[in-house]
Amino acid sequence: MKKYIIHPILIIGITLLFFCGIPYVYAIGEVNIKDGPLKNNELLVTPPDGDHLNEDHSGVNTWITKWYGPDGNYTNNSGFNTSGPIDLMSKGTNGSITDVSLSTMNGILKTKRIDVDWDDANGGTRGWTVFDINHADANNMVRGGPADNFDMYGVIVIDSPKQLTSVMSPSHDDFAQIWLNGEKWYNNSRWTGGVHNVDFNIEVPIQKGTNVLVYRCGEGGGSAYLNLHFDDETHDTVKIYPDKATDQATFFNEIDDILSVEPINKLTTTWSDIKRH
């Protein structure tokens, strides 16, 4: 049997880490989705099962817990595989807002005057509000409604002082779709296996100024969670909204100063430039 000798300096370093208060910094593992956004023929394609990482991100303290979105879920979705390919935002606004356009400032602004009007069987009319989720709760999408067969939307606005090549890490149960600045960057119909478990770290461009991200998750049965965090550099650099807002009015008060900085809707033309920084 091969013997391993631990160097005394390493032992001292580990001891200092635990007993001298040196803060723990979580390091994201492999970035296994690159070169997005998804192309038209990839929009509803789930990554190959063998590509998943099965990473435990329970040590992360930057999970996003405040979201802006409809004040209730789309219910009775007939299962996430049925609802996933349907643009539910378009369905509820007669095409005025779509899943894609919601991930732009133009779409965000439309939510000031356009509610989501789904059929009564699917939740009825939904206004827009700010809501909190508990990132450790394996049912954080339920929000007081039915526990099975629904879809939830969450929106955040990211204000960045510079261009960034960022990494986002989603955890979800079940069908997750993520759009950023008018492009779709993630589609996965498989649950990740745990509330803090991440299967894919996705490289995305954060543009200088205002960025809008839409996270939609469809639930079938069992646990129902949606979680997201970025790499440490991103969280150290950007400001994410909602911050202290508690409803639609205070959300727009928070982002009022950055509303004039509209990101380019189609980032494919600038992604190569961003990656060079």
Shape: globular
Q: What CATH first level would be assigned?
A: Mainly Beta
- Rg, Å, rounded: 20 Å
> How many strands, what sense, and barrel or not for the largest sheet?
6 strands, antiparallel
For the record, give the distance between the C-alpha atoms at the N and C termini, rounded to a whole number. 48 Å
Mean pLDDT: 88
Instruction: Determine the structural class based on helices, strands and strand pairing.
Output: alpha+beta
Low-pLDDT runs of 5+ residues are 1-26, 261-277
CATH topology heading? Jelly Rolls
- Work out the strand percent: 25-35%
Provide a count of the helices: 7
CATH architectural type? Sandwich
Question: What descriptive keywords fit this protein?
Answer:
single chain; 277 residues; alpha+beta; Jelly Rolls; six-stranded antiparallel β-sheet; 7 helices; 17% helix; disordered C terminus
Sequence-ordered SSE layout with sheet pairings:
Blueprint: H1 8-19, E1 55-56, E2 66-70, E3 74-75, H2 80-83, H3 88-93, H4 105-110, E4 116-117, E5 125-126, E6 128-132, E7 150-160, E8 164-173, E9 175-180, E10 183-188, E11 197-198, E12 202-206, E13 209-219, E14 225-230, H5 232-237, E15 239-241, H6 248-255, H7 271-275
Antiparallel strand pairs: 1-11, 2-6, 3-7, 4-5, 7-13, 7-15, 8-12, 8-14, 9-10, 9-13
